[in-house]
Sequence to fold (358 residues):
Amino acid sequence: MHAAFEGDRVVGGAAALALQMTVPGGSLPCTGVTAVGVDPTHRRRGILTRMMRAQLDAAHERGDPIAALWPSEASIYGRFGFGLASFAVELQVPRDHSAFALPVERIPARIISAEEALDAFPRVYDRVAARTPGMYARSREWWKSRILPDPRERRRSAGPARRVLLERDGEPVAYAIYRHQQAFEYGVSTGSLLVVEAFAADPAAEAALWRYLCDIDWVATITASLLPLDHPLLLLVTDMPRLRFTLSNALWVRLVDVGAALSGRGYRDGGEIVFDVVDTFAPWNEGRWRLADGRAERTDAEPDVLLPAAELGAAYLGGVTFGQLGRAGRVDEMKPGALGRADSVFRGDRAPWCPETF
Ligand SMILES: CC(C)(COP(=O)(O)OP(=O)(O)OC[C@H]1O[C@@H](n2cnc3c(N)ncnc32)[C@H](O)[C@@H]1OP(=O)(O)O)[C@@H](O)C(=O)NCCC(=O)NCCS
Fold:
């Protein structure tokens, strides 16, 4: 935690979580930027800028190749080299139109206590997190302090958290945490089931888990937020147009150390790309980087792509393509076809997913 002082009074703060984040083909130490705030009496005097400076320098010294955050205001962090790298989807499924296209395996489900969940849920979560860019390792402490407690202030207008575990042959294969938000009109339920998080280790367990959630009585709508763009629920249901789909931003990523970050993830092929990176806030990243066979090194070669560090952060997890960035005018293609080549190297097999805000 960095703090800004006036005399002995704290007037601002910025925290960094020590995360281990999944990236395509592996995982890396990641500074999770959070709890950023400046007293209303001290705003617009450069305090945030100085805290970001101190925080980035500390991350660089620590050797974290990347940093990530959930912004409360998207206009703040681009100047510090963070780029919009993933999206969050909220899906609302009308229970009356929640039929699935294919038959669903029957997997026994049990409602369990927070104590039992502490051992069972990580066995599913860890498998999903290991293959999903944007997810990060949860320590036992994280489960105990952030995920499983159910204090009243977290419930808002909904009921207590329910924890359901699905086991195949005694092995945890899926779980969900959800709440009921009950409402009735003329004796008919208009309430919602609010899914806090739901993970499954394999496709059959995924279908069984969502079938369970969509079959709970006294519910009109099943609402799940913080889903990835390519969540299977979109294709599990027969009647997809009945789903309500809302898109918002999720993780913003900054490459603290361009060389270590580019060399630290996996690639679809070993193709060669030369990036010319503009990074005034982290000048050690400035200049040309040649990526070949999954390794990034300094080079004098002519660049294929000229781009700000924030846009390299945006493309890093595979959730935003260089083609998209080019069409939005955010990166410059210096050689014909370079953006397409960069995409064929960077493309992952799934959208990044960060299922919790921090
Ligand atoms: C956002 C916040 C931390 C900014 O702190 P600050 O000390 O006033 O920021 P700075 O003076 O260092 O401003 C840095 C730059 O960001 C811009 N900026 C600051 N707050 C902004 C905002 N809310 N929206 C858009 N731009 C903002 C400033 O104009 C300045 O731009 P410039 O460099 O082009 O002049 C502060 O207003 C705050 O605490 N807000 C409420 C909590 C919050 O939103 N925190 C962020 C959580 S992700």
User: Anything to note?
Assistant: Residues 82 and 254 are 4 Å apart (CA to CA). The chain has two domains: 2-86+251-346, 88-248. Residues 114-131 form the longest helix (18 residues). The pocket of coenzyme A is lined by residues 36-38, 43-49, 71-73, 75-76, 79 (CB under 6 Å).
